[in-house]
Design brief:
The chain has helices at residues 6-11, 42-45, 91-100, 105-108, 197-207, and strands at residues 19-24, 30-38, 47-52, 55-60, 77-80, 83-87, 124-132, 135-146, 149-161, 167-172, 189-192, 213-222, 228-234. The relative contact order is 0.24. It is 15% helix and 41% strand. The strands form 3 sheets. The chain has a 6-stranded antiparallel beta sheet, with helices on one face. The chain has a 5-stranded antiparallel beta sheet with strand order 5-6-7-8-9, covered by helices on one side. Strands 3-4 form a two-stranded antiparallel sheet.
Length: 237
C-alpha cells in the first residue's frame, strides 16, 4: 500500500466526516493517535471536546441550540489500563465494558452496527492502542451498511502489530460530501506520522475544511513509560 500524507488527503476532501488516526512517531518512542469531528448541520457543529478523566467527551457548546444529542454526545476516548479506546460514537463504552469482561476488541463490537441515521447509515469506526512493557500495537474497526442497505452490517477489523516508526493508519466515516453521504470504503489508509504532538495537531487542524471542522483531539503515549500528553482544539471558543 502506498503511503500518503494526511495533509494532502484531508485538503482534497471537504467532508471526510469523523476520522481516527493511529501510528508510531518517526523516532519509534511514541504511540500517536488523533480523532476529529466535522459537521454540516447546526446540531453537529454545536459541539466541543472536553477532558473527562483520562479520556474526552463531546459537549454542546450552546446547550440551548442542541436539538438531538443521541448521536453527537458521547465519549470518543476512554482508557482501560494499558489500552486507549478511540471511536466515533457511544461504542467507546461498549468496547470498554466488553474488554473489561475479557472480551476482545472485535467481540465487544459484535453487539453494535452502523448508526441509525437513514439514509446515511454512518459507519461506526473504532480504534484501540495497546501499550505495554515497551511494546505497541493497535487495531481499527469499521461497521458499515451493505452498500447503503440497512438490512446487512459489514464488519471489518484491521490489526497492526509492531508498527513501523513514522507510519500509521487513517480511517474515516465518509468517502466525501454527498446526499446521502457515501460510506468509507477499503482498508485504513497508510499515512505518515509527524515527529511531535504539536506538529501532528497543527497539520491536522490546518488541513481540515474550515467550514466543516468542529473539534480535534491528539494524544501521544510514550511506549517505554506509558505516560501520555494530549491536546484538544475546538473551533467553538
Amino acid at each position: 500500500m502506498k503511503k500518503i500524507t494526511l495533509e494532502q488527503e484531508l485538503k482534497g476532501n471537504p467532508y471526510p466526516g469523523r476520522g481516527i488516526v493511529i501510528g508510531k512517531s518517526p523516532d519509534g518512542t511514541k504511540a500517536m493517535t488523533a480523532y476529529f469531528i466535522m459537521g454540516r448541520s447546526e446540531n453537529s457543529r454545536n459541539r466541543i471536546f472536553v477532558e473527562d478523566g483520562q479520556g474526552i467527551r463531546t459537549q454542546a457548546f450552546d446547550p440551548a441550540k442542541m436539538t438531538d444529542p443521541s448521536l453527537v454526545i458521547y465519549a470518543p476516548v476512554r482508557v482501560l489500563g494499558n489500552k486507549t479506546i478511540v471511536t466515533n460514537g457511544d461504542q467507546t463504552d461498549t468496547i470498554y465494558e466488553g474488554m473489561d469482561k475479557q472480551m476482545t476488541f472485535e467481540q465487544a463490537l459484535r453487539s453494535r452496527e452502523f448508526e441509525p441515521d437513514a439514509p446515511n447509515y454512518t459507519p461506526r469506526i473504532s480504534g484501540i492502542l495497546h501499550v505495554e512493557n515497551g511494546s505497541f500495537n493497535y487495531a481499527m474497526s469499521i461497521l458499515k451498511s451493505d452498500n447503503g442497505s440497512p438490512e446487512s452490517c459489514n464488519r471489518f477489523t484491521f490489526a497492526y502489530e509492531n508498527p513501523a516508526p513514522g507510519e500509521g493508519h487513517f480511517i474515516h466515516t465518509y468517502q466525501s460530501d454527498g446526499d446521502p453521504l457515501p460510506s468509507y470504503e477499503g482498508e485504513p489508509k497508510l499515512v505518515a506520522i509527524p515527529d511531535s504532538l504539536e506538529e501532528f495537531a497543527e497539520m491536522l487542524w490546518g488541513s481540515l475544511n474550515e467550514d466543516n471542522k468542529v473539534s480535534l483531539f491528539v494524544r501521544s503515549i510514550h511506549i517505554a513509560t506509558g505516560e501520555s500528553v494530549s491536546k484538544i482544539i475546538n473551533k467553538n471558543q
